[in-house]
């Protein structure tokens, strides 16, 4: 009997050891920071309409892949809100130093729906003992921490119509209009209660809903929350609805645009001559928080970026000018990713950008390899 137990125990230990090794290798693989993974991913998805890439270097089209294809932007769309904020600050419509009580953001916050972004922003504020912050810090948190609550609050303060007017100013006609991001999360719960549907019926109704109604519902919910915020219990109920099927619908219905649209926007940001100096006075501190890093200050004249992600999406829009005067704009949008792809792209994107900006050989090889059929 002891022998049998010993054999069974040995088998179990071996099995656990093998699983541990497999898990360790998996963790190591997804956490690997590898710019070549981005290159290979682009090459393998050249025919995939769910992947769009546009890169410009010194006004030259360096990489172009499905650049006209509209794809979900996720948080990259917050660039538009940042521009609207800076324009209104420059015009004197808003005061960036106006204090915002952190409680004013709570109606637009549903816990565990933004990857911990809002919590992270609040955490660094709590360390400083803050209960209120300047409006400028709300904008900073929207870009640096990607807080969805801050984004929807700014839409409320700036006015959604004004935010969408920015799209007209920028002449990005294919860009879908913005709508409140967080409010859309509540649409399934609203629909279920309104029509007395089962969860399965709600999912079907949500998939069948046209975008006009979807945006209108999101806006109505947003406006209602200003007057009558959800209780903690109601927020918990909305969160409970969000299984992966509902998350996929939410992700697929996020505001869409093309990398061609965003290269155009990035060029305007990078040139420093499209927007007025007054606008850049408020826009650059929000968009270019990368420049707070002393190491970036050593070799970059300016640089800004905004990325976005869901369980299925990864996006990035970035621009930079180095101290030699070289200008780069990068727009990378990918949809319908599996978990491994999403994580590996996310972990490798920073090193890919850095290598493109600093390695001439890498730039030339990238252009050559991606232009080949």
Automatic annotation (TrEMBL):
Q: What is this protein called?
A: Serine hydrolase
One Pfam family matching this protein: Beta-lactamase2
Regions crossing the membrane? none
Q: What region holds the Beta-lactamase class A catalytic domain?
A: 58-173
The coiled-coil regions, if any, are none
Give GO terms for biological process.
Answer: beta-lactam antibiotic catabolic process; response to antibiotic
Q: Which UniProt keywords apply?
A: Hydrolase
Signal peptide from the UniProt entry: none
């Amino acid at each position: 009997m002891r022998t049998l137990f010993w054999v069974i125990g040995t088998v179990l230990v071996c099995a656990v050891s093998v699983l541990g090794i497999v898990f360790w290798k998996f963790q190591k693989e997804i956490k690997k920071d590898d710019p070549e993974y981005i290159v290979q991913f682009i090459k393998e998805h050249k025919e995939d309409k769910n992947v769009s890439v546009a890169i410009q270097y010194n006004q030259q089209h360096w990489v172009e892949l499905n650049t006209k294809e509209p794809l979900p932007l996720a948080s990259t769309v917050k660039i538009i809100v940042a521009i609207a904020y800076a324009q209104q600050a420059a015009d004197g419509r808003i005061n960036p130093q106006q204090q915002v009580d952190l409680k004013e953001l709570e109606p637009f916050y549903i816990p565990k729906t933004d990857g911990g972004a809002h919590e992270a922003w609040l955490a660094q504020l709590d360390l400083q003992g803050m209960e209120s912050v300047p409006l400028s810090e709300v904008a900073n948190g929207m870009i640096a921490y990607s807080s969805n609550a801050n984004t929807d609050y700014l839409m409320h303060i700036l006015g959604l119509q004004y935010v969408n007017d920015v799209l007209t100013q920028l002449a990005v006609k294919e860009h879908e209009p913005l709508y409140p991001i967080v409010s859309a999360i509540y649409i399934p719960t609203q629909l279920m209660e309104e029509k007395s549907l089962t969860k399965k019926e709600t999912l079907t109704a949500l998939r069948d809903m046209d975008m006009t109604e979807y945006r209108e519902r999101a806006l109505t919910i947003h406006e209602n929350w200003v007057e009558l915020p959800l209780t903690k219990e109601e927020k918990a109920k909305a969160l409970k609805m969000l299984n992966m099927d509902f998350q996929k619908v939410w992700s697929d219905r996020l505001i869409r645009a093309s990398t061609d649209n965003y290269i155009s926007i990035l060029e305007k940001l990078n040139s420093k001559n499209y927007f007025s100096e007054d606008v850049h006075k408020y826009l650059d501190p929000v968009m270019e928080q990368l420049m707070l890093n002393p190491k970036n200050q050593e070799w970059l004249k300016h640089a800004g970026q905004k990325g976005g992600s869901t369980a299925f999406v990864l996006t990035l829009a970035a621009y930079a000018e180095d101290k030699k005067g070289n200008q780069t704009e990068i727009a990378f949008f990918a949809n319908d990713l599996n978990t491994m792809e999403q994580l590996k792209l996310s972990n490798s994107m920073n090193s890919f950008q850095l290598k493109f900006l600093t390695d001439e050989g890498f730039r030339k090889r990238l252009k050559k390899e991606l232009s080949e059929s």
